[in-house]
Specification:
Elements: E1 3-4, H1 15-22, H2 49-66, E2 69-70
Length: 71
Amino acid sequence: MLEFVWPVLFVLLPLPWLLYQLWPEVPPPPRIRIPRFPASVGTAYTASRLIYVVMGAIWLFLILAITRPVW
């Protein structure tokens, strides 16, 4: 049967979500407008949902690793 040496560390699972909810939002820096470039050059990159799913999976696997599962 799978057991965890430090199961109390599962408390850290919601930590990224809590930090996202409680951390104040930082306003973006002002953009420099250069007239010879098209307007699309200065647009900010919007992250897709896949990045958040991958980061969540990595966080879950890290927490699983630090709880030291033993057979």
